[in-house]
Amino acid sequence: NWGRCGGVPWSPGAFGQAVLSAAPMTDRVSVEYPDGGSEDRGYMAVTTTVGGQSVRVFNTHLAQRRQEAVRADQAGVLAEEVARHDRAIVLGDFNAVPDAPELARIWALAADTAPECRPSPVGDCEPTTDWNLKFDYVFLRGIAPLWHRVQLSQYSDHHLLLTDVDPT
Asked: CA-CA distance, 117 to 105, in Å (whole number)?
């Protein structure tokens, strides 16, 4: 528990994120957003294979609460990069509920794996945090979800988000 997402001493470029894969990963990048808000934020991305198909995987952590304009800019930077890929998995802590305007550019590119969670919810959207809010997402572009669930965690104020995808 370093107390901040980048650890101590503060290490820009370490945003408290990881991507683990049983398949080899290539083309790794770590990108810091131009404006991190109250602390440095960014995304990391890798290329790997899912079911024999190449897919770009992005993991992000957007600015925390009451920084909507900063999150909107960050989501725009991320969306611009995601748009370059036909098949992508975009996951992380977006610090925004599904209908937050700052997520519009991400929603325009990809769907969340929880079918009931959309900018206009079609059912009960299961919370992913201790505050009974959905802030965490697994967005898919060019890939279909098979199942999705949220599992409570005793180790974080965010719950574990589990998703399986159809690689075809």
From this structure: 16
C-alpha atoms less than 13 angstroms from C-alpha of 37 in its C-beta half-sphere: 19
Cα–Cα distance measured from residue 64 to residue 94, given in angstroms and rounded to the nearest whole number:
8
Give this prediction's pTM.
0.89
Contact between 119 and 99 under an 8 Å Cβ cutoff? The reply is yes
> Of 99, 111, 104, 101, whose CA–CA distance to 148 is shortest?
111
Query: Residue 37 has what DSSP assignment?
Result: T
pLDDT tens-digit series, residues 107-139: 999 999 988 888 876 777 888 989 899 999 999
DSSP symbols for the chain = --SSTT-SS--TT--S-----SS--EEEEEEE-S--TTS--EEEEEEEEETTEEEEEEEEE---TT-HHHHHHHHHHHHHHHTT-SSEEEEEE--S-TT-GGGHHHHTT-EESSTT-SSS-SS-----BTTS---EEEEEES-EEEEEEEE--SS-SB-EEEEEEE--
Residues 6 and 41: their CA atoms lie apart, in Å, by 9
